[in-house]
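Standup notes, protein team

Yesterday: finished cleaning the Flavobacterium chungangense set.
Today: Adenine DNA glycosylase structure.
Blockers: none.

Input for Adenine DNA glycosylase:
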Amino acid sequence: MHSKYFAMKFHNLLIKWYLQNKRDLPWRNTVNPYHIWLSEIMLQQTRVAQGMPYFFSFTEEFPTVFDLANADEEKVLKLWQGLGYYSRARNLHKTAQFIANDLNGVFPATYHDLLKLKGVGEYTAAAIASFSYNEAVPVVDGNVFRVLSRYFDIESDIALPATKKEFTTLAHELMPKDNPAIFNQAIMEFGAIQCVPKNPNCGVCVFNTSCLALQKKKVGVLPVKSKKLKITNRFFNYLILEDIEGNTLIQKRTAKGIWHNLYEFPLLETDEIVSFDFITKTVQQGILSSYKITGIEACSHATIIHKLSHQHLHIQFWKIKVNDFLGNGLKFSDLKSFPFPIVIYNFIEKEELNR
């Protein structure tokens, strides 16, 4: 256990640093739980610079939780396009509907009740509870793990649930109970811009006389994290059909898994990267045998490896001319109003330029 004096010295130094160095971020100037919740969901798995424009477009399009609740899911996914991890957007929408319809638009006011919301984990619940309601619950994310593991020279594996408890207890000890919000903001910001993962500038750090990792030359090895999940490789072949009117086909991904409820072109998933001959044979004799195919072409500019957290998608696009009318065919120029995975949306944009 650390003394009250030690905790006070630590948080005073940290908060002083924060007030001098913090970035001016829009969700910091509010205690509105709707805005704080939105920003926290967006910033899971996303850098601040990338998330900021999305935060502005969401708050402009959906000023209140009721506006978000009443929106069409497709519109929500379209606005989210490019942020990735789309289950966040689907959960966001469902939770907005629950808050609007079941809770009359009022967010739960305690950490314990916030945790019951779909898509809200311990970190997000702690952020909303402390920033909106000044509840003394610490946030523990990658930034906090890094700061505390280095400062105190803690070698516990941060991939283990027990370590999360250890760091939560420690952060709670260090936190000023009368102002938890500013402590949480400060420690997260300190990890984001000062105590960064690689090559932090320890020479200018306010803790450089007391940080154990610096004294023991362990800054580069902390925090300790065991190896990640095995990466799965998948091979996607997208068939870009074009009929005699210049129309094409898209479909909605309804199966659970990646990109659920987003749109894509007809997909042929294979066990490896396949050749032009394989595609020609499969298309003509199999999945598109009912159409008169007049040409198949590989889009060489669009062979991509798209990396997700636990799978690498090897994506090839194949243009297929059809001497026929496609039922449910769409003009290429109409495609951009649908929500697509960003890798497909980027392909559509490139194709438009080449037309």
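Follow-up from PR in the comments: The longest helix spans residues 4-21.
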